[in-house]
Design brief:
elongated; 40% helix; 26% strand; 473 residues; alpha+beta
Amino acid sequence: MRDDHGSSPRSAVDRQEDGGVLEAFVRLFSLSEAPISHILDVALDEVLAITGSDVGYIYFYDEGLRTFTLHSWSKGVMDACLVVEKKTAYHLDLTGIWGDAVRTRRALVINDFQAAHPDKRGYPEGHVALRNFLTIPVFHADAIVAVIGVGNKNGAYGAEDIDRLELFAKGVWSLVLRKQTETALVESEQTYRSLVETNPEAMLTVSSDMRILYANKAASILFGMDGDEIRAVDLYGLVASEGMALHDIVNECRDGATFRGEVSLKRKDGVVFDAVVSAAIVESLSESQRFSVVVRDVTRRKQAERDLKSEKEFTEKIIDSQIDTFFVFDPNSGKAIRWNKAFRDISGYSNEEIEKINVTYSYYGQNDLQKIQSFTEKIECLGRGRIDLTLICKDGHTVDTEYEVSRVLYGPQNTKYYIAVGRDITERKRLETESKEQLAFIKALADAIPSPVYCKDTNDHRIWFNKASFLSG
């Protein structure tokens, strides 16, 4: 009776030989700290001794790619094999009889390798000669992960050879799997540490009671402390004020949320700086909670924001201090986007109302619309111009206004805006009208005088005369 892998029951294995397998594995296990390549080389030597074979190999197998990759070949084989190009990777479909261990998923024994076999494809000239051959698949979680092959035993391979080889292979693979896991873990840790250490952002690992467990290089530079000094203080010790409720960070992170907020922190020398702190819980196999904290120095950004705010306030004060009205509007939408106090006062509209009003159609009457249309064409052509319009205020009264208008392009999209600076010319217009009326009245009086009346300049040229002067020649 054989098991699913084609092996004989363990009762068929001689106890002395079984003990030899265990001793071989004990010797192999003593090398558990060595690289996998060395472990496999030693394992193959033990395989040859266990089965009394002269040659052998260990290939890893990838069921997804259906590919064999050579990991160990008995020492004398490479020297004895005269094949110039010794491949180390094979696709299952291109293998001959030695690939049957994978195709049938069971051990394969050929005790007369020279005899005809339907799956034999021979081997290249110069390849080491085989008298007999044994190969087994190595399983892990029902998947074939490797194949082990031996050959040229003095005598025939039997069920006991298969059992010893399978028993030893299980032990070898458990050791290889552990080494692969350890190697992957070390590589992962090294990769993570490299990423963290080279990250320009300050990164901390903090316990639930705010003790700092780890700080990267950027954190040491930011706080002016080495790793030991940072770990000697807790996160509270880095906070410059009580404005940041650190327990809120812990509570939010414990609920699965991430925390992000601004806080003032301090360096070793006491210098306070503005920072953005981000925190998230770190998933761990242990019951103790840890948090990943990223600290970004935003002192320059905050100062730039304060400077910008100050400049904006200063600019607005300058604009609001102007006697002339000022507003900026989008000619496409007709909406004002900036205006000063003088415009708000003279129009009588509030800030909220100005935001909603169309500049062209709400502030000026029908008599001005045609004038505005012609003027817009001039602005698009020349970029600036002057126009007189009658402003209709909220309460209905009108203000004669003279505007200096300029077209500007602003922003990454070169958005077009019109800037209009207006002056109340109501009084000037009134005086001009009165002056014209007075001149017309004086002229009418002069023309009523029957005698010639005229006025000359210093060059004896007449610059003004009445109707009688004209008739008298």
